[in-house]
Design a protein that fits this description.
By secondary structure, the chain is of the alpha+beta class. The chain has one domain: 4-Layer Sandwich (Chorismate synthase, AroC fold). Helices cover 26% and strands 21% of the residues. The strands form five sheets. A five-stranded antiparallel sheet has the order 1-2-3-7-4, with helices on one face. Strands 9-8-10-14-11 form a five-stranded antiparallel sheet. Strands 5-6 form a two-stranded antiparallel sheet. β1 and β2 form a beta hairpin. α3 packs across α8. The protein starts with a strand and ends in a 5-residue tail after the last helix. Bound molecules: flavin mononucleotide. The site of flavin mononucleotide has 20 residues, from α8.
Length: 354
Amino acid sequence: MAGNTFGNFFKLTTFGESHGEAIGGVIDGCPAGVSIDLDAIENQMMRRRPGQSDIVTQRKEADTVRFLSGIFEGKTTGAPIGFIIENTNQKPADYTHIKDSYRPSHADYTFDKKYGHRDYRGGGRSSARETACRVAAGAIASQLLGAIAITGYVSSVGDLTLEKPYQKLDFNTVDSNVVRCPDAEMASKMIAKIKEVKKQGDTIGGIITCVIQNVPVGLGEPVFDKLHAQLGKAMLSINAVKGFEFGSGFKGATMNGSEHNDLFNQDGTTKSNLSGGVQGGISNGMDIYFRVAFKPVATIMQKQQTINSKGEKVEMQGKGRHDPCVVPRAVPIVEAMAALTIADFWLANKLSKL
Ligand SMILES: Cc1cc2nc3c(=O)[nH]c(=O)nc-3n(C[C@H](O)[C@H](O)[C@H](O)COP(=O)(O)O)c2cc1C
């Protein structure tokens, strides 16, 4: 299986399956001398952790990150940072029904056809459990980035959408409710919606908006590795992501240039920011912002028609502990992938000119 590494300079390789002994990662390329705040890493892990509220999966995992190398006396040494997160709450019996049958819209069919042998317990490597490693590594990347601030929040659940622009929101309130929407009234509607869908044995999709502030001018490589292209790859590599919209996004396609152009102030900042903080693939110092769309997860508790590995029609009903809506837990994952991308370009930029 190729493609378990993300980044060129700040590189994360992850390993492990949902129901194996442990998952973990190796970060290669983190410079020496970064002060590591373990509580900040733990806090991001808690935000992704299953069982954190009644609107997420009830799997109980401590998700404690154990660092094995690369950190000494509170600072990175420059050596590879190895870490593991033990899997402590496996229930493989919940997955025997998918051993020979395929959950519609999950990864069971494609893994089976591609590899001919798959770890069906909890979805194995296709499980979003792998994203816990991204969150741990992203928290280290954030500490390398210092003043660059990355904030994600839930802006839609199903057809409920927070229309307020991010500039009008108080980011300190993102975690004041379990759905992670920084608007109390909208948050309670979203929570009620997720509970209603869960009661029906169904799932629902949603959108996370992410804003990156205090980014210096010059991050991003202007041809194949444009900053927004790499952010798109980072986000689309997260399980269940179906859409990525950057800056003015699809709305920009409906506008005239005279409305869309971001006119300059004399100091090089711009009066508007429909470019989303990136021009020509390079950050221009304005806020970077984008939206990430998550589908409703595939495992539903209702009966569905599917097929087994012999191509026979079978009926399937989801079992076990699943997320009715992933966006509340995916906020720290989006933030982590953004931090890994920015850290990678921040290091690359050190080589861009004398
Ligand atoms: C935080 C998070 C939690 C998830 N939880 C579940 C889950 O409980 N059940 C499920 O079927 N899929 C869940 N998924 C989605 C699957 O991992 C994903 O749909 C699957 O790997 C197939 O990949 P694809 O949807 O990207 O094609 C979750 C995704 C994320 C980001």
